[in-house]
Design brief:
alpha+beta; Arc Repressor Mutant, subunit A; three-stranded antiparallel sheet
């Protein structure tokens, strides 16, 4: 059976990783869009992104559009693998429960 990825497992980070994993490779989501998807506050989302960035699962790019700051996030190849592994872990649990419930 697969093991949970403790970094991805946390609910807000799982939402972040799900949203980023759904994008084509090299595509990025803006911070404000991730905030809307996760329902997190600026500070909470920033903290989770820092955790994911330190783990190598996401890349955070900060730049300016005119004079306005912009933060965008992209999932990395290791992040995509970690997310897919965590999804496999969750599927193992669901399939195991499904078999036991029918017996």
């Amino acid at each position: 059976m697969s093991q949970p990825d403790e970094i991805v497992h946390q609910s807000t980070r799982l939402k972040i990783m799900s949203a980023l994993n759904a994008l084509p490779r090299r595509e990025m989501l803006e911070f404000v869009r991730l905030k809307a998807i996760t329902g997190a506050t600026d500070g909470n989302l920033g903290s989770h992104l820092t955790t994911l960035e330190k783990s190598g699962y996401v890349t955070v790019v900060k730049d300016f559009v005119g004079k306005r700051p912009r933060t965008r996030v992209r999932i990395t190849a290791p992040g995509r693998r970690a997310f897919q592994s965590h999804v496999a872990y969750l599927r193992d649990i669901l399939e195991g429960e499904g078999e036991g419930a029918g017996a």
